[in-house]
Amino acid sequence: MAIFAYSFYAEQIPVNDGAGFDGVFYREVFQNFSTDVFTVGYDRFRIQRIFPFCLMNVVYNLAGIPLTKTHMMTGMTLLHFLNLAIQILFFFKLAKLQGWKPVTKVILFSLFFFNFSVLKDCSFEAFQTDAFAVTIALVSYYAFLTGRNATAFAISLLGLVTWPTVTYVMIPLILFQHKGNAASAPGPFRAKFFRLLPFAYAVPAIGLVALSFILHKEANLDGLLLTSPRPSLIIFSLVAIVGCGWLLATMQKWPPFPYTPTDFLKSFRLRPAIGIALCIVAISAILRMIANEEFFFDGKLFLYQIIARPLKYPLITFAGQVVYWGLLPVLLLIFAKDFVKEFMEKSPGHALVLLIFIFFALDSEGRHIAPLLPLLLVPLGSALDKADLAPKAAIFTVIAQLILSHFYMPINVEGFAESLEQGNLFTPVAQRLFMNYGPWMTSTSYFYWLAIAFAALIVTNVVFKRAKRPQSGQ
């Protein structure tokens, strides 16, 4: 807990009294929700992120606590601590439910909690919803695994006003829950599904880039990539991600996709689908009623961002995921075959969620997989248990995660505040923060973290191979 306490009180972003940029809006929700919600309302995008702050507004008003900037920052710090405590509680409940081995439990705990997201990002920019979305996803998924579908969905509905991905990921899990008898002899397409998947990404990526040049909309592409890359670099980046994806699935011999369209139809549950649809429509209607016409961001652009961002630099996605999550993407690659198998075999719904995760993981801004993080623990835990690792694998993971989290590296150095005030996010001092958000990486930050990512991949692979206990009879 000392590490968590240090990280929460070490430093805060030196802009707008610790609220940062986007955080100013959410601090205003904290301060004025009870009046603004019925008068001016909120824009249609950010209204999907207001839950923690409207909750705190209600609590402060009921308790008679002054809504000053100092009091609100204290409240957010305490809320993050409470949120962290809930995460730790449900992590161990999930560990008990899954019966993970002690080594696996330590590894997963380190991956989940010892990263830039938890040890730095939550405290540095307290007025954000990422950590709370993770908690909602964790608690709802735990309820789902214990057979309480209605409770799981009810909890996940909080995602509609925190981070909607949480809610929409729970839906296929509930609607396609029963896997029945998956076909034992997959056809050529399902057998090669994951080897073909990288090429499926290439189609919209090529289309997006080609249209940008044909329609002379290069500026739009530059806006998505936050740079003006040469066409040759874009092509090289596309070949790199498609080629590496194909090689990984081929060399590791990923399993075939286990379900046919018929399997999905047979597992579909109509009555829950009707109830879920009614809930979503009702809540969406309420949100539209209290939303205003102010434009902030078009959610559709998020899909274009995911497709475009891997094209900024070759394998920037790998660098962006490692800088934010540490060894998590590394271990997902090392144990990809068993991870994919364990994930898909749970149900057709899990297979759909796996595809959603792969799509979101393309984004070099690692924080965007946060709502899916709890769902990764169970199949990765099964893969780690199967490997039967010695304690040195857990020790290595703890140390490596703490190092890679770089929570000990100060961000508020001389010149940092000035760079932010000038809107220059690509200076060396500004990169102390913005290198953690993929597309905002400079070429220097990219090369630095890509080298670290590959070094981590090589060293971790060696350590974990040596940590595998010999099987009986060997």
Describe this structure in words.
With 474 residues, the protein is mainly alpha-helical. The protein has 25 helices and no strands. Helix 19 (336-345) packs across helix 21 (373-387). The chain is globular.
The portion of residues forming beta strands comes to under 5%
Report low-confidence residues grouped into runs of 5 or more.
Answer: none
Shape: globular
Main sheet overview? none
Straight-line N-to-C gap: 41 Å
Count of beta strands? 0
The total of helices stands at 25
The level of helicity is: 55-70%
Overall residue-averaged pLDDT value: 94
Quickly give the structural class: mainly alpha
Radius of gyration: 22 Å
SSE string, helix = H, strand = E?
A: HHHHHHHHHHHHHHHHHHHHHHHHH
